[in-house]
Design a protein that fits this description.
Layout: H1 2-8, H2 11-34, H3 36-44, E1 124-125, E2 128-129, H4 141-145, E3 150-158, E4 164-171, H5 176-186, E5 191-192, E6 194-196, E7 199-201, E8 203-211
Antiparallel strand pairs: 1-6, 2-5, 3-4, 3-8, 6-7
């Protein structure tokens, strides 16, 4: 043990180890300066390819089709309409074999329907007073004294003979005495009767009479 310790403590051995360390450092610095280290780093920095592996999905078979339903009724038979086969009738005895192609003359046009003319409207004429046979009514003395004046409208029912059957006051003159005097006096006048298609008929006629003092 003492010999090994004494050998380890020799100064020459320490110097040799220290020199080796210094030598290694010097070699390392030279290598860095000479570019050996750069070339080594470049080699380490080569292109790195990344490969993405797609996930492969397992092939799943499609589901089987559903089973057909059971106990289905059979489809109805298709209906085929019967076909009428023309049956040629045997030719009748004494039948005409050839048909003439001569065109037939056109049928004459049917006569237009006769439209009856509408009946003509009857011609009417009104009753007219015959002034030549009509006397002027007498002025009432009381109305003259009181100076009563006015116009009265009268209606007369004239018969087929032209005589007045009925007389009415249609519009008063404002004085009863004048109205009654005009109705009674003009009722005695002779009228020309109204006619229908030339035949006399009974009809109403209108007349106005004015009372005026002279």
């Amino acid at each position: 043990m003492q010999d090994y310790a004494s050998r380890q403590r020799k100064p020459t051995k320490h110097l040799v180890g220290l020199g080796l360390v210094v030598l290694l450092h010097l070699l390392l610095l030279w290598a860095i300066n000479s570019g050996l280290a750069r070339s080594f780093v470049k080699k380490l920095k080569g292109p790195v390819e990344a490969v993405l592996l797609e996930e492969q999905k397992p092939d799943i078979p499609p589901p089987p089709p559903p089973p057909p339903p059971k106990n289905l009724p059979p489809p109805p038979p298709s209906y085929v309409p019967p076909v009428d086969v023309p049956v040629s009738a045997p030719p009748a005895a004494n039948a005409i074999a050839a048909v003439s192609n001569t065109p037939q003359p056109p049928a004459p046009p049917s006569p237009a329907p006769v439209v009856a003319a509408p009946p003509a409207a009857p011609v009417r004429t009104g009753a007219v007073v015959n002034s030549a046979n009509c006397e002027k009514p007498e002025y009432p003395s009381a109305s003259r004294r009181l100076e009563e004046e006015g116009t009265v409208s009268l209606r007369f029912l004239v018969g087929v003979d032209g005589k007045v059957i009925q007389a009415e006051v249609d519009k008063s003159s404002g004085f009863r005495r004048l109205d009654e005097a005009a109705r009674a006096g003009l009722a005695k006048c002779q009228f020309k009767p109204a006619t229908v298609d030339g035949k006399p008929e009974q009809a109403w006629a209108s007349m106005k009479y004015t009372w005026r003092l002279e």
